[in-house]
Design goal:
The chain is α+β, with helices and mostly antiparallel strands. The protein has two domains: 87 residues, no CATH class; 148 residues, Sandwich (Gamma-B Crystallin, domain 1), CATH 2.60.20. Strands 1, 2, 3, 4, 5, 7 and 10 form a seven-stranded mixed β-sheet that branches. A four-stranded antiparallel β-sheet has the order 6-11-8-9, with no helix packed on it. Helix 1 crosses helix 2 and helix 1 crosses helix 4. The chain binds calcium ion (CA).
Length: 246
Amino acid sequence: MSVGEVRRETGPEARPVEECFRPVSLDDSSTSPSEFPSAVQAAAITPRNSIGSIDEYTMSDLWRFVMRWLVFGLVVTMVLGAVASAGAATAPPARSHCVVRVVDELPSGELVTTPPECYATLAAAVTAASSGTYEVPAGLSGRDLFLDPSVAASVASFTLGIHFDGRYGTGSSISEVGSSCTGGWWNTGASWANRISSSWNGCYRLRHHDLPNRSGSRVDTVGSQATHTLPSWMDNRTESVSYWGS
Ligand SMILES: [Ca+2]
């Protein structure tokens, strides 16, 4: 049963209309829904046709209108979803806290380290750096590390230094695990080249070099168990660090 039929049977004006004009029904092939003219055509022929057909065309057009907007809304939603997904895919990577361990020193003085092991938090990285012998609070931040003397002393016993890509010990970090502060140097490699903004000293003096292999301009951070922000002229320029005991 079509919507048009319901209207004719229940509407107050249905009876007089059917008496004067040709009725419209589902089995009337001349007015089957699939053959309805467009809205413009329907409007054009309305005066010469029945009032029953006006209801048929109006409801049909309304139904088409609603369906078109529903489909349009669905398409817009899908497009916006795709755009949001693309934005998420290109979002910057999360912070990471990595650890490298000194396993050798070349005759030149360059330190040989293990590949980086990376963790979601500084606390996890420090615990890993101590091979699990030193438990630190899960919420440990660079600030906590530098303010608690007992924590700082413990970390300094097995760490040459911790380098951060943010000022004042913030952002991602890389910890250098070792105990020899005799001038050996670490080449940052591509992943940390021209990125360091601050360092926490395990050794007394950390010399930050502009270029690999302890060359180019340099600046020292001095004072063990404390964090130091590099001067602006050396910010994001370090490509090697040498570690000194005095
Ligand atoms: Ca540089």
